[in-house]
Design goal:
Radius of gyration: 34 Å
Low-confidence stretches: 1-54, 101-115
Structural class: alpha+beta
Largest sheet: 6 strands, mixed
Distance between the termini: 27 Å
Strand order of the largest sheet: 15-19-14-18-16-17
Length: about 650
C-alpha cells in the first residue's frame, strides 16, 4: 500500500506529545497552562492588583517552564528507550514481521470489497427488458449471465486464471477449461437413463420480493421456455426445448424431467436457463422490475444513466453449497453506467471512471492495447464466445455447385482480416469450434490463403474448372457495411476471383436488411459481416445454433417443407444426418464431421472472437471466469 494516503499524511502533520511539551516550554506555558488554554470562564472581579498579578504571573511562568522542561526530558527519555526496544525487537523478528505485513496487506485487499464500496460497471445500451431472464444473448449479458441477479439449476465449472506476462505484463489467461456442471439451485440430480433427469431442488433461497423459493419455480421455467416467443422470441434456451417431454414435481423438493430422444445439449440448457420469479416476470417491461434469488437486486433504473444492484438482504449465503461457500454480497452497490458505444466506454475506463466492463467487450484494438500496457488494470481473456462467418446460398446458380463455393472460400485471407479488423486475441479459422472443444481438429482449421496463397489459388482454379466456370460468371456479395471487416473482405475476394474471370457485385446492407435476407434465405450468393454461435463447450449446442452449417437459412423455403427437401439442401442427405447426430450427442468422429462441413461449403467461420476483460487493480477481487468465459458475480465463489 502506498504511503501517500490520507492517514499517513495526517500522521505526518500530527504533533507528538513530546513536541507539544517542548513548544509549550519555549512559549512559557506549562501543563497547567495547557489545560487552561481556550477554556474561557475568566471572571474580571477575581483578578489581583496589577503589580501583584504581574509578580504572580512571572512566578507561575518560571515554575511552568521548569515543569515543562522536566516533563519533556522525561518523555524524551521514555520514548528513546521505547524506540531502542522496538528496534531490537524488530531486528529479532524481522522475518516474522515481514510475513505478518504481507498477510495484513492481503487481508486488507480481500476485505476492501467485503467492507462495502461501490463497484462500477458499464453497458452500451439500456437493458432489453423483453428478453431479460430467459433471453441470454445480446446487450443484457453483462449482468444476465453472471449470477448476480438470476440463478440457475446448475452452472459450469470455474476456470483457473494464470498470469501471462509473455504477451503483456498485466495479462491473465483462463486455463483448465472444464464444462462439468455443478449444482446451484439444485442440490444435485440423477440420470437413471438417457431420457430422464431427476433434480433435488433447494428450499432455502428467497426471492428479492421476500417470497420463499419453491419447486413450482422450477416447473415455471421448464414450461415457459417451451414457448418459441418467450423473451420476445429467438431465446437460445427455447430452441433447446425441442426434445423436452413431461416435466413434473414429484414432491416438494424433487422435479422429474423426461426427454423424447437422446439430447446432447441438455446440460447446457440446465446451466444457461435462468430461474425467474413466476409472480413478477410479466411486469419486467412495464415496470423495469427484475426479480431473482441472486446476491444483488436490480434497483434505481434510469434509461439516461443506468441502474444499481444492491445487496439482497435475504440472500441464502449461510449454507454449505459449493458455489457460494458461505459468501454473500461483497459490495454495498454495483453501479451500472450506460455509454453511447464501446469507444466511449473504453475511454471512461482509461479515465478511472469504471472498475470493470465485464460482459461488454471493448473490442477496439487501439484502446485494448493501451489498457493492456496500463499498470492500473488487470486484463483477463478466456475463450471465444462468437465469431464472424461467411455464408453461401445453397441453391443460387452458378454457385449451386459446391466445387465453386469451395473455390471462393479457399481464396479468403482470414488472417489478414483478423489482423486488421479483429481484436487482440481473436483467432482466424474456418471451423465452428473454439480451440479446446472436443470437436476441434486443428489440422483442418486454417484458411488455405493464410497458409500458402499460391497453392490456394492453384487449387481454387482447379475447382472452378471442374465446376465448369469459363469466365464471365458473376459473384454477388451482400455485406454488413457497419462492420468494417465485411467490405474489406469483399474487396479482397473481388481481387482474387477476378484472376479467374469472375465478375463481382458488392451490395452494402444495413443490419435489418441483412437479418431479413438471412432468415428468408433470399440473399444473392455470399453474405459477409454476420456473427455466429461459435461457443466453447458442447458441440451439440454449437451445431444447434449454427444455421450457416445446417443450411436452414441458405435458401428460400416453405416452413411446411421438411429441411431435407428444401432446395440445395436436399443434395446433402448424409450431411443432414451427421448434423442431427451431433445435436443428439451421438456423433464421435469429429474429423469426418469437419471434413464434410468443408465439403458442403455452405458456410465457414472467418475468425473466432475472444473478449478481453479489464478490471481496475483497486477493486481487490480476483476475476474468475467460468468455462464459457462469463465472469462470476461479485460475492459468489466456488469452493477451492
Amino acid at each position: 500500500m502506498s504511503e501517500s494516503n490520507y492517514w499517513t499524511r495526517l500522521a505526518r502533520r500530527r504533533i507528538s506529545r513530546r513536541g507539544m511539551l517542548r513548544a509549550s516550554a519555549r512559549a512559557g506555558v506549562g501543563a497547567t497552562g495547557l489545560a487552561l488554554v481556550g477554556c474561557g470562564g475568566d471572571n474580571d472581579d477575581d483578578q489581583p492588583a496589577p503589580q501583584a498579578a504581574a509578580e504572580v504571573q512571572q512566578d507561575q511562568q518560571q515554575q511552568a517552564m521548569q515543569q515543562a522542561q522536566q516533563q519533556a526530558a522525561q518523555v524524551e527519555q521514555q520514548e528513546e528507550a521505547q524506540q531502542q526496544a522496538a528496534q531490537a525487537q524488530q531486528q529479532a523478528e524481522e522475518p516474522q514481521a515481514q510475513q505478518q505485513a504481507q498477510q495484513q496487506a492481503q487481508a486488507q485487499q480481500q476485505a476492501m470489497a467485503a467492507t462495502g464500496g461501490v463497484y462500477r460497471r458499464s453497458n452500451t445500451s439500456t437493458p432489453n427488458f423483453a428478453s431479460l431472464g430467459f433471453g441470454t444473448a445480446g446487450n443484457n449479458n453483462g449482468f444476465n449471465e453472471d449470477y448476480s441477479i438470476f440463478e440457475r439449476l446448475a452452472r459450469v465449472s470455474p476456470s483457473t486464471v494464470e498470469p501471462d506476462p509473455s504477451s503483456f505484463p498485466n495479462l491473465h489467461r483462463a486455463v483448465d477449461q472444464d464444462f462439468t456442471i455443478e449444482p446451484v439451485l439444485a442440490n444435485g440430480w440423477e440420470t437413471p437413463d438417457n431420457l430422464t433427469w431427476i433434480f433435488e431442488v433447494r428450499t432455502d433461497p428467497v426471492w428479492h420480493t421476500g417470497r420463499a423459493f419453491d419447486i413450482e419455480d422450477i416447473h415455471y421455467m421448464f414450461e415457459s421456455i417451451r414457448d418459441p416467443n418467450v423473451a420476445g422470441g429467438g431465446a437460445p434456451v427455447s430452441r433447446m426445448t425441442a426434445n423436452l417431454g413431461l416435466g413434473e414435481a414429484t414432491d416438494a423438493t424433487t422435479y422429474r424431467l423426461a426427454l423424447t430422444r437422446p439430447t446432447g445439449y441438455i446440460e447446457t440448457l440446465i446451466e444457461q436457463a435462468n430461474i425467474v420469479d413466476r409472480e413478477t416476470y410479466d411486469r419486467r417491461e412495464d415496470e423495469a422490475l427484475v426479480i431473482g434469488t441472486g446476491p444483488y437486486t436490480f434497483e434505481n433504473y434510469d434509461p439516461n444513466r443506468g441502474w444499481d444492484q444492491l445487496p439482497h438482504p435475504q440472500f441464502a449465503s449461510n449454507n454449505n453449497h459449493p458455489v457460494y461457500s458461505g459468501g454473500g454480497p461483497q459490495f454495498e452497490k454495483i453501479q451500472h453506467t450506460i455509454f453511447a458505444d464501446t469507444g466511449a466506454m473504453g475511454l471512461a475506463f482509461e479515465a478511472g471512471e469504471l472498475d470493470s466492463h465485464q460482459g461488454v467487450p471493448i473490442g477496439l484494438p487501439e484502446i485494448e492495447e493501451r489498457l493492456l500496457e496500463d499498470d492500473r488494470f488487470n486484463a483477463y481473456t478466456g475463450w471465444g464466445v462468437g465469431g464472424r462467418v461467411l455464408r453461401f446460398r445453397a441453391d443460387a446458380e452458378p454457385f449451386r455447385n459446391k466445387l465453386a463455393r469451395q473455390a471462393v472460400l479457399m481464396l479468403v485471407d482470414a488472417e489478414r482480416i483478423r489482423r486488421d479488423f479483429g481484436g487482440t486475441f481473436d483467432i482466424a479459422g474456418r471451423l465452428p469450434w473454439q480451440p479446446g472443444s472436443v470437436a476441434f481438429v486443428p489440422e483442418l482449421d486454417p484458411h488455405p490463403m493464410s497458409v500458402d496463397p499460391d497453392a490456394a489459388r492453384t487449387k481454387a482454379g482447379q475447382l472452378l474448372d471442374a465446376a465448369g466456370f469459363t469466365g464471365g460468371e458473376v459473384l454477388k456479395i451482400d455485406t454488413l457495411a457497419e462492420r468494417l471487416d465485411a467490405p474489406a473482405l469483399a474487396q479482397i475476394i473481388q481481387q482474387e476471383v477476378g484472376h479467374f474471370g469472375i465478375e463481382t457485385e458488392i451490395s452494402p446492407r444495413e443490419y435489418t436488411e441483412i437479418v431479413t435476407l438471412l432468415t428468408t434465405g433470399t440473399f444473392e450468393h455470399l453474405v459477409l459481416g454476420t456473427g455466429a454461435w461459435i461457443r466453447p463447450g458442447s458441440p451439440a449446442y454449437t451445431v444447434l445454433y449454427s444455421d450457416e452449417y445446417t443450411g436452414r437459412f441458405s435458401a428460400p423455403h416453405d416452413d411446411n417443407v421438411p429441411l431435407e427437401q428444401r432446395p440445395g439442401i436436399s443434395d446433402e442427405p448424409e450431411w443432414l444426418d451427421m448434423i442431427q447426430q451431433a445435436i443428439d450427442g451421438t456423433w464421435t468422429d469429429w474429423e469426418a464431421w469437419n471434413e464434410k462441413l468443408l465439403d458442403v461449403a455452405w458456410g465457414h467461420a472467418l475468425f473466432r472472437q475472444y473478449r478481453v476483460n479489464f478490471e481496475s487493480k483497486d477493486v481487490g477481487q480476483q476475476y474468475t471466469p467460468d468455462a464459457n468465459s462469463w465472469p462470476y458475480a461479485p460475492g459468489t465463489h466456488f469452493a477451492s
